[in-house]
Design a protein that fits this description.
heterodimer, A: mainly alpha, B: mainly alpha, Hydantoin permease, 73% helix
Chain lengths: 59, 470
């Protein structure tokens, strides 16, 4: 389950950054990039809290 | 039992830090991974949305920015690795207990209050940053680069609302927010990167060959905005070096690096510097260039919208909120020494209220470069005192940790070195017109020299006076 959640989380991060590269390459519109970034944010914040460790920081 | 005011003050301070009194035990030491994550997360904050644009406003040229950030961030990393980390791993004490040995509890109390005030202003800037994103859906008029006072009723109401929420969350607890901040940091970093990339075509970049021309002609043009000093390579280098002066040269990160197995973990700060203070500053500079080209607003919220739409607004709010919260919490901890009978939530509430009032003034956000430099400069002399006490004193036959050994409540050599250094920096500024960004380096030598010289005098005088007294 955790493995699956991690895949979804990293998919969210990919959705955050990859569309921008496609906008730069001229194959994706800015509007679509903004929509995909929002979807990426939703995916990341919906899944990452379930597997990221809650251990205290070094401090 | 010591019932004097000095004794009470010392007892209050000590009680708050009691749990951290002992050096870190070997089983609690950590590997490099934790430090990489910590530094990378801590230095991708809401304020990065302001600093990149301010470089553009100061008319820095492309080469000066890129090379200056490379050099300045390298110097910052070296300061963490060679100044702060070696002392941290040898003493394993946090800043509070280490400084207490040198300054005595009463001078440390003063340091705590100054530190808390600085934290309040810093958190205020972060709340202002978040407010610029929250206000967009309500068509709030944004403050401009030169605005120092509240610009509209809508700005005041939005800032008060954001400050109220941030304070309420800080009152409710710190741990959950710290954890959420950790979750948000990798996403935030990618938002900066993606935003910068996505707007390049609108600036005229159609291929990699265009990058240099667009950077020189449209982003970092070398022409400052009206009323701003033009930044050179040296401004950028020294700003990047001293942006976290309080943490490395000022030794605040003793508290973090004391958990490091090896002093070399100080190099982990490179992840914070080159991701947050290089990539994010460059990306936010690109965003503001587009805003200027379109004749739009240059506040963090609007420029994040240009780069990433709604995700950009969320990023600005989260980046502001997750960094303002621990800052308010730390300020509350420091302030609690003045009001020992208040519950922690009451102190946090008071600090949050003060921070929110500070956030009403866009000056904190729009003059962030100057404020950050001032913040580091004010706290730096105590870091220099720690350096001298640890490395120089044993070599010249002076006693380290003299205040603790002699049970001195207020160490006057440390106090005079602190005040004297700031006075010397003021003088350098007045006489030679040196910008605040350049004062930290000579100031460090002044602080180290003053503290060493005055401590030498004091320890010698006491040594000579002792036989006569006995």
């Amino acid at each position: 389950m955790k493995y699956f959640l991690k895949i979804l989380s990293f998919g969210g991060l990919a959705l955050t950054v990859a569309p921008a590269a496609l906008v730069l390459a001229g194959v994706l519109s800015w509007r679509m990039h903004a929509a995909l970034m929002l979807a990426g944010a939703a995916l990341w914040f919906a899944t990452a809290p379930f597997w990221m460790r809650r251990a205290a920081d070094a401090a | 039992m010591n019932a004097s005011p000095q004794g009470k003050l010392a007892a209050r301070l000590d009680a708050m830090n009691e749990f951290d009194r002992a050096p870190v035990s070997p089983e609690r030491l950590r590997g490099p991974g934790g430090f990489i994550g910590l530094y990378a997360g801590e230095h991708v904050a809401g304020t990065e949305f302001v600093i990149g644009p301010l470089f553009v406003a100061h008319g820095v040229a492309t080469g000066d920015l890129l090379w200056g950030l490379l050099a300045g961030n390298l110097l910052a990393v070296l300061s963490w690795a060679f100044l702060c980390a070696p002392i941290a791993v040898r003493t394993r004490l946090n800043l509070y207990w280490h400084l207490r040995k040198i300054t005595g509890p009463n001078l440390l109390f003063v340091y705590n209050i100054v530190n808390a005030l600085m934290f309040c202003f810093l958190a205020g800037a972060m709340i202002s940053v978040a407010a610029t994103a929250v206000g967009i859906p309500f068509d709030m008029p944004m403050p401009g680069l030169d605005d120092l006072y509240p610009t509209s009723v809508a700005w005041a109401l939005t800032t008060l609302a954001v400050g109220g929420v941030v304070t309420a969350l800080a009152v409710l607890g710190f741990d959950r927010i710290a954890w959420f901040s950790k979750i948000a940091s990798p996403w935030l970093l990618l938002v900066f990167l993606a935003s910068g990339l996505a707007v390049l075509p609108q600036l005229g970049v159609e291929s990699f060959a265009d990058l240099r021309t667009v950077a020189n002609e449209k982003i970092w043009t070398g022409v400052p905005a009206e009323g701003r000093v033009r930044f050179t390579f040296w401004h950028v280098t020294f700003f990047a070096w001293f942006a976290n002066m309080a943490m490395h040269i000022g030794m605040a990160d003793l508290t973090i690096l004391r958990y490091a197995r090896k002093w070399q973990y100080g190099f982990a700060s490179a992840f914070g510097m080159y991701l947050g203070h290089y990539l994010a500053w460059v990306a936010s500079g690109v965003l503001v260039a587009l805003a200027i080209q379109q004749g739009g607003e240059v506040a963090p919220g609007p420029i994040a919208w240009l780069g990433a739409g709604a995700a950009g607004l969320i990023a600005v709010v989260l980046a502001g909120w997750t960094t303002a919260n621990p800052t308010i919490y730390r300020a509350g901890l420091a302030m609690q020494t003045i009001t020992p009978n208040w519950k922690r939530w009451k102190v946090t509430l008071a600090v949050g209220a003060a921070t929110t009032v500070a956030a009403l003034f866009p000056a904190l956000m729009m003059r962030l470069l100057d404020f950050v430099a001032l913040y580091g400069l004010i706290l730096m002399p105590m870091g220099a005192a720690i350096f001298a006490d640890f490395w120089i004193f044993p070599k010249i036959g002076l006693c380290s940790g003299y205040a603790e050994w002699q049970k001195i409540a207020f160490d006057w050599p440390a106090a005079l070195a602190w005040i004297g250094t700031l006075a010397a920096c003021r003088l350098m500024h007045a006489m030679w017109g040196w910008d605040i960004f350049f004062l930290g380096l000579p100031g460090w030598f002044v602080a180290t020299g003053l503290f060493t010289g005055l401590s030498f005098l004091r320890q010698r005088l006491r040594r000579e006076a002792r036989p006569a007294a006995s």
